[in-house]
């Protein structure tokens, strides 16, 4: 081996020549080929890969949409309709992109839910989790700005309402809003900068996703039992086992996505956004996209404007410190008999907020939103910290391999019961 | 299928149901429930009834177009309705459009061409309002996408005129429509008598027929890609079903030695 060259094991001479100088093939083999992965993943572990694919779909369709879109207040709406009518397969590009945003949030919400249920945020994966929360925030900013681009009624009024939230900041609030708008109302400068940032952000997300995955490959994946692999008997090489399993989830995801795009392309959108933006006509109900509704409900549940804004941002910011709020050393909810029902109620509260966020701000939705908001925070700030001390977790399995191996394994018959029932 | 898989599917379904609930939940409250009409384009195998859409175009041209623009459509698009090149040229040539400036710097009028956009009835919004008692007739290019209920709403609105119930006083120049938000609409009942539009294909132009035809036409205008989209969707779903079966079989095979 020549000095300074990487010791490559690739057989093909051309690839080997490259790999000796830039060991990307060795790296891919290590990180996605032989990478030791817990053998007991369920299908919830598909959703990280699905989110990655979704990001790539959004970037690919977005680049081609941008070639045909005009970010100007007098032309934006018409340019989008031109994409729908006159650009070859433009309707497909746009509907995939618009519904892709919804799919992205469905996938990421399930991915986050998976992390919450199986305790993936706990040591040693705190930073991995926090990078995930950063991605979630960037996604929300990107989706919000993307929804403004078609310049329909909901684009304009959604942008007006959301940017106005910053006016709640004491002293400098109104100045911040003027600065965000680039003027004294949502107008052409706002549309221009939102387009620019909407194109930039996905690449920032891509960068943070890289860090998210890099951190994952240091700690390794969590698993449904929430216990660490103790040796090779507990893991499988990523390929072919999880490439095969991810493929199943990926096709199911594509099928679901296709049904939305081809048969219900406007189901998750709002009819008002097919009316060109008009600063002089306010829609009867201004509502954000469905994936923002839980946070919108929290905003409206608080009678004070600044308080509402703080609570809304706080509801996501709290996730950053979740690894330290949850004091239990047990990761998976399967072994937490008390935390599990409290967490299920939290999930219900989240869905209730999603529902109430789409309703007009009147009774009984306001009171329901307040109760759900209170529980949302109570769960993180009081219940989780206390449970770590009060709860007596179920006994953990000795290893991943023992409860997973069924029939034919080297285990005595008594060890084949489900992990929950194991003493 | 394992219990875990079922759980995963249940969560996915729950999230979508939540999203779905949030969607229709946003419809403006208080409106009357729309009467259901069957349209040929309903469902995953739906297609446009071109004869009906052509008649609907006649209704638009002779009635709606007096006040409503369709500025996103061009005359050439009418070919997709099954009209011949000559017919489209003749329809376009029927209108005078402003073009220019010419070499002398003057704007001039000429006969329309298939490449021209549908001519708008008014020069601008102010002119439209001035001619309509202050109300602005909305552009109809994407109207079925821009209203909750789509074609069902258009149909309901056009048949929804009636005398105001006792105790309701209409504002000056307004009409009572039970499906319009707030019930007071500035548009006079546009299709009020059988035979208002002369059909050339022998269909009896009842009010109900005209309303169905114009709803068909407006749906086509808003979503001209719909037939192609749904046909592609059917193929996609079939393809992913087969591919999913294969992927699952491969997964089972790969994992056979693990379980």
Automatic annotation (TrEMBL), chain A:
Record PROSITE patterns: CYTB_CTER, CYTB_NTER
Binding positions (a ubiquinone): 217
Cofactor(s) in the UniProt record: heme b; heme
Residues annotated for heme b b566 binding in this entry: 111, 212
Pfam families: Cytochrom_B_C, Cytochrome_B
Domain named Cytochrome b/b6 C-terminal region profile: residues: 228-398
Free-text remark on how the cofactor is bound: Binds 2 heme groups non-covalently.
Binding residues annotated for heme b b562, in chain numbering: 97, 198
Position of the signal peptide: none
Domain Cytochrome b/b6 N-terminal region profile span(s) in chain numbering: 14-225
Keywords on record: Electron transport, Heme, Iron, Membrane, Metal-binding, Respiratory chain, Transmembrane, Transmembrane helix, Transport
Membrane-spanning segments: 43-70, 91-112, 127-149, 156-177, 197-218, 248-268, 306-325, 337-356, 368-387
GO BP term, example: respiratory electron transport chain
Gene Ontology cellular component annotations, sorted alphabetically: respiratory chain complex III
Compartments, as annotated in UniProt: Membrane
Gene Ontology terms for molecular function: metal ion binding; oxidoreductase activity; quinol-cytochrome-c reductase activity
Similarity-based family: Belongs to the cytochrome b family.
Assembly: The main subunits of complex b-c1 are: cytochrome b, cytochrome c1 and the Rieske protein.
Function: Component of the ubiquinol-cytochrome c reductase complex (complex III or cytochrome b-c1 complex), which is a respiratory chain that generates an electrochemical potential coupled to ATP synthesis.
UniProt name for this protein: Cytochrome b
Organism: Roseicella aquatilis
TrEMBL record, chain B:
Highest taxon of source: Bacteria
InterPro entries reported for this sequence: Cyt_c-like_dom, Cyt_c-like_dom_sf, Cyt_c1, Cyt_c1_TM_anchor_C
UniProt binding sites for heme c: 64, 67-68, 187
A Pfam family the protein falls into: Cytochrom_C1
Localization per record: Membrane
Keywords on record: Electron transport, Heme, Iron, Membrane, Metal-binding, Respiratory chain, Signal, Transmembrane, Transmembrane helix, Transport
Entry's Gene Ontology cellular component terms: membrane
Protein name in the entry: Cytochrome c1
């Amino acid at each position: 081996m020549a000095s300074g060259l990487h010791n490559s094991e690739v057989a093909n001479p051309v690839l080997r020549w490259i790999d000796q100088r830039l060991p990307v093939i060795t790296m891919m083999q290590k990180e996605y080929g032989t990478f030791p992965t817990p053998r007991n993943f369920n299908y919830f572990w598909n959703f990280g890969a699905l989110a990655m694919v979704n990001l790539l779909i959004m970037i690919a369709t977005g680049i081609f949409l941008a070639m045909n879109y005009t970010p100007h207040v007098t032309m934006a709406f018409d340019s989008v309709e031109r994409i729908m009518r006159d650009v070859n397969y433009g309707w497909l590009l746009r509907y995939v992109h618009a519904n892709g945003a919804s799919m992205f949030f469905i996938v990421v919400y399930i991915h986050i839910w998976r992390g919450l249920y199986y305790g993936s945020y706990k040591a040693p994966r705190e930073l991995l989790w926090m990078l995930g929360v950063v991605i979630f925030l960037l996604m929300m900013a990107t989706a919000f700005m993307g929804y403004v681009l078609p310049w329909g009624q909901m684009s304009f009024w959604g942008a007006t309402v959301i940017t106005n939230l910053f006016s709640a900041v004491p002293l400098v609030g109104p100045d911040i809003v003027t600065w965000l708008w680039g003027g004294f109302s949502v107008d052409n400068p706002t549309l221009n900068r939102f387009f620019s940032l909407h194109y930039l952000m996905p690449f920032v997300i891509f960068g943070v996703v890289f860090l998210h995955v890099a951190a994952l490959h240091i700690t390794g994946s969590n698993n449904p039992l929430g216990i660490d692999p103790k040796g090779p008997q507990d893991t499988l090489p990523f390929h072919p086992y999880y490439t095969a399993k991810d493929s199943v989830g990926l096709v199911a995801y594509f099928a679901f996505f296709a049904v939305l795009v081809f048969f219900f392309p406007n189901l998750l959108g709002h009819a008002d956004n097919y009316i060109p933006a008009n600063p002089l006509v306010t829609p009867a109900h201004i509502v954000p996209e469905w994936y923002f509704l839980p946070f919108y409900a929290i905003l409206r549940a608080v009678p004070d404007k600044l308080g509402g804004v703080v609570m809304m941002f706080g509801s996501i910011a709290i996730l950053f410190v979740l690894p330290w709020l949850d004091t239990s050393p047990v990761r998976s909810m399967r072994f937490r008999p008390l935390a599990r029902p409290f967490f299920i109620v939290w999930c219900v509260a989240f869905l209730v907020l999603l529902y109430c966020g789409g309703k007009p701000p009147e009774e009984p939705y306001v009171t329901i939103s307040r109760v759900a908001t209170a529980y949302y925070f109570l769960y993180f700030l009081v219940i989780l910290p206390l449970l770590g001390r009060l709860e007596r977790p179920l006994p953990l399995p000795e290893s991943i391999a023992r409860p997973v191996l069924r029939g034919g394994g080297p285990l005595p018959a008594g060890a084949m019961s489900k992990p929950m029932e194991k003493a | 299928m394992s219990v875990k898989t079922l759980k995963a599917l249940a969560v996915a379904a729950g999230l979508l149901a939540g999203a779905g609930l949030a969607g229709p939940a946003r419809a403006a409250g208080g409106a009357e429930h729309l009467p259901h009409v069957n349209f040929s384009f309903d469902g995953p195998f739906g297609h446009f009834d071109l004869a009906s859409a052509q008649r609907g175009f006649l209704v638009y041209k002779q009635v709606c177009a007096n006040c409503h623009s369709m500025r996103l459509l061009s005359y050439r698009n009418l070919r997709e309705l099954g009209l011949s090149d000559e017919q489209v040229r003749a329809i376009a040539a029927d209108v005078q459009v402003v073009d220019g400036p010419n070499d002398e710097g003057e704007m001039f009028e000429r006969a329309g061409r298939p490449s021209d956009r549908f001519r708008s009835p008014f020069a601008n919004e102010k002119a439209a309002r001035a001619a309509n008692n202050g109300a602005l007739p909305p552009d109809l290019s994407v109207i079925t996408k821009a209203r909750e209920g789509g074609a069902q709403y258009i149909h309901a609105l056009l048949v929804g005129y009636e005398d105001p119930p006792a105790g309701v006083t209409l504002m000056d120049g307004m009409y009572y429509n039970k499906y319009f938000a707030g019930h007071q609409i500035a548009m006079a009942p546009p299709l009020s008598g059988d035979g208002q539009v002369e059909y050339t294909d022998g269909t009896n132009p009842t009010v109900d027929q005209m309303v169905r035809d114009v709803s068909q036409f407006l749906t086509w205008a808003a979503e001209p890609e719909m037939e192609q989209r749904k046909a592609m969707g059917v193929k996609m779903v079939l393809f992913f079903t087969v591919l999913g079966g294969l992927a699952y079989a491969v997964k089972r095979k790969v994992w056979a030695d693990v379980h």
